[in-house]
Automatic annotation (TrEMBL):
InterPro entries: DNA/RNA_pol_sf, Hepadnavirus_pol/RT, Rev_trsase/Diguanyl_cyclase
Stated name of the protein: Reverse transcriptase domain-containing protein
PANTHER family: REVERSE TRANSCRIPTASE DOMAIN-CONTAINING PROTEIN (PTHR33050:SF8)
SUPFAM superfamilies: DNA/RNA polymerases
Family annotation (CDD domains): RNase_HI_RT_DIRS1 (cd09275)
Protein species of origin: Mytilus coruscus (Sea mussel)
Lineage of the species this protein comes from: Eukaryota, Metazoa, Spiralia, Lophotrochozoa, Mollusca
Length: 304
C-alpha cells in the first residue's frame, strides 16, 4: 500500500475544515505523477455561460443556486485502487475508499458525474435552463413562480414581542419566553420582534436542519427585512447576520410571513408573560418552556 501525507485546509465557514490527501508527494514518484495528463484536464462552464442563460430567459429572470454536499466523497473508487490511497494516522494504516481532494483526476471524474446530473435535469426533470461548475448548479426561469418552495405543515414558527414586557416564540408544542431589561426596552419594535426569531433558530436550529420554515410575525416591516435580509438599521443587521449564519450552518430555507395580530394570540400571550392565558388557549403545548440564555450585549455602534 502506498502512503501519502494528510493535510487540512480551512473552509470559508470558520471552524470547518477540508481534509487534503497530499497525493503529489513525494515529487517524481507520487500518485499524481503517475496519472496521465489527459485524465487531469477539465473544462468548466464560465461566467459567460451563466450570463447567456440569463439573457436567453430575459429580464427579471429568477435565479436559484444549489450544490451537492460533500461532493467528492459521494464517488467511490475501484476496490483494486484502494492500495494507492493509503495513509497513516496515530500509528495505524488506512486507505480511502472515496474520491479525494488532492487527487489530480478527481475534478475530471466529478465533472463527468455532474455533467450527467445536468443532462438528467434537462431531459428528464424538464429543467431547460441549468448550468453547473463541478458541484454548484444554477437554474434560471422567467419568474419565481416556476419553482415550488416546499415546506412542511409542522415547520411554522410564531413569534411576538412586546416593547414593555418581553418576547415569546412557539414552534409546534415547544415554546419559550423572556423579559427585556431596561436597555432593550429602549430599542425599536422591529429590532425587538426580530430577536425571538433569531433566538428560535439558535435554539431549534437542529430541528429545522435541511428544511424550509415560515416565520410568522405581525410586524409587516419586519417581514420585508427578513425576506430581503437587509436593513439600514445597524442594530437590525446585527441580528440579521446572526439569523443568516445559523440558517446557513443548518441549511435552513426561511421566509417571513405576515400574520394579523388578532390571530397571533399565542405568541402575543407569551410576549406579555401571560403563561396562564397561553396554556388556556393552547392546552396541547408543553408544560414548561425551553430555557433561554441571558440577553446579549447590544452592539456598541450607533445608527446613522
Amino acid at each position: 500500500m502506498q502512503l501519502s501525507p494528510l493535510g487540512l485546509a480551512e473552509k470559508k465557514m470558520p471552524g470547518t475544515y477540508r481534509m487534503i490527501h497530499h497525493l503529489s508527494f513525494p515529487e517524481g514518484s507520487s500518485i499524481n505523477d503517475n496519472i496521465p495528463q489527459d485524465k487531469c484536464s477539465v473544462q468548466y462552464a464560465s461566467i459567460h455561460d451563466a450570463i447567456e442563460l440569463i439573457k436567453t430567459v430575459g429580464r427579471k429572470s429568477f435565479c436559484a443556486k444549489t450544490d451537492i454536499s460533500s461532493a467528492f466523497r459521494i464517488i467511490n473508487i475501484k476496490e483494486s485502487q484502494y492500495k494507492l490511497f493509503g495513509f497513516m494516522w496515530e500509528g495505524k494504516y488506512y486507505y480511502d475508499k472515496n474520491l479525494q481532494m488532492g487527487c489530480s483526476s478527481s475534478c475530471q471524474i466529478f465533472e463527468n458525474f455532474s455533467t450527467a446530473i445536468e443532462w438528467i435535469a434537462k431531459n428528464k426533470a424538464l429543467i431547460p435552463n441549468i448550468v453547473h461548475i463541478l458541484d454548484d448548479f444554477m437554474i434560471v426561469d422567467k419568474t419565481e413562480d416556476g419553482y415550488r418552495w416546499l415546506t412542511s405543515d409542522q415547520l411554522h414558527l410564531f413569534t411576538d414581542a412586546s416593547g414593555t414586557y418581553g418576547y415569546g416564540a412557539l414552534f409546534g408544542s415547544q415554546w419559550f419566553l423572556g423579559k427585556w431589561d431596561t436597555k432593550w426596552q429602549k430599542q425599536n419594535i422591529a429590532f425587538l420582534e426580530l430577536y425571538p426569531i433569531v433566538l428560535a433558530v439558535e435554539i431549534w436550529g437542529h430541528r429545522f436542519e435541511n428544511q424550509c420554515i415560515y416565520f410568522h410575525t405581525d410586524n409587516i416591516a419586519l417581514v420585508s427585512v427578513i425576506n430581503k435580509q437587509t436593513s439600514k438599521d445597524a442594530f437590525i443587521m446585527f441580528l440579521i447576520r446572526r439569523l443568516v449564519l445559523h440558517c446557513l450552518r443548518n441549511n435552513v430555507n426561511f421566509k417571513a410571513k405576515h400574520i394579523y395580530g388578532s390571530k397571533n394570540v399565542l405568541a402575543d400571550a407569551l410576549s406579555r408573560q401571560q403563561v396562564q392565558k397561553f396554556h388556556r388557549l393552547a392546552p396541547w403545548a408543553d408544560t414548561v418552556p425551553k430555557p433561554v440564555p441571558n440577553l446579549p450585549d447590544l452592539p456598541s455602534y450607533r445608527n446613522p
